[in-house]
Amino acid sequence: MPAESPAACKKLLIIGATGLIGKFITEALVQNTSKFDRIAILTSSATVQNKAQEIENLKKEGVDIIVGDVTNSKDVVEAYRDIDTVISAVGRDVIEHQVELIRLANESDTVHRFFPSEYGTDIEYSPASANEKPHQKKLIVRAAIKKCDKLDYTYVVTGPYADLCLGPMMGQLGSFDVKKKEAVLLGDDDIKTSYTTMRDVGKLVTLAALHPDASRNKALKVNSFTATNLEILQEFEKQTGSKWKVSYTSMDQLKKIEKEAWSSGTPMATGATLRRIWAEGGTLYEKRDNHLIEAENIVDTLEDAVAEAIKQQTKSMI
Fold first, then answer.
1. What φ, ψ does residue 288 adopt, rounded to 5°?
2. Which DSSP symbol is given to 243?
3. Is 23 a residue of the active site?
4. Residue 79 contacts by C-beta under 8 Å, 6 or more apart in sequence?
5. pTM above the 0.85 mark?
6. What is 11-160+195-223+287-296's CATH topology?
7. For 236-252, what is each residue's pLDDT tens digit?
8. Which of 38, 80, 245, 246, CA to CA, is 20 to 30 A from 150?
């Protein structure tokens, strides 16, 4: 990697800008437009057509819309022109394609920083991480970027998204159902997990770009809050004003679900493994890096996250 002081991240290209987490990253960057020289997105013609209003809104905010195919090298090279920082927010199904995006960035005359699509579990948390099935493609991406001779990188490691974990969708894998006033807790009351809300992912990526020295060539371990299962449950009960019905999925049950999901090839497999990693403490660190990018006092609290979960679930009931 280059040894000199890192250049500023001023001309940004976002790939996956309208996806699940990409839209939060893009929104946070756009809210800080004055601090950057250029914000652009590389998106497909299908997205331009299917998300026309979203694209039009970005244009109005001064975002450059570059239409192209992320799997076409010529389109990517063209998109990299006059860009110094690439922020990838591609989905898990195309994670490995970032290897080519990284190669082209390393060969670019202008790109000097690459943010690969991490925004989740630390895939190098411990020696055991190398064997976890959901980590394999991201590990390939990290290996590729570390081989680059001109490209700096930042891994924004956020842990699980609070928005998804504090919802009802995961059922036996841990859930909080506002309508039914029911919760399924993994393990026991004392299991502790670090969470980041998706809007905070956007804030944290933005701050990482604004602090290029502090975030250079490292896994930036950041979060919104850390809480036990019981603390989350109690906050839901407090804010809904009622006692909830609680059941538990033991670690043994979770491991059985995980094993069966991988054996049958169901989409639940990845989620089950990640949930087991989190329940085993795979999101906990001695200290966070929020302070390195001046993010201590701008992230959501447990109270904020639960309030948003209640708001979203209540909205869906109407």
1. -100, 165
2. P
3. no
4. 13, 40, 42, 66, 68
5. yes
6. Rossmann fold (3.40.50)
7. 999 999 999 999 999 99
8. 38
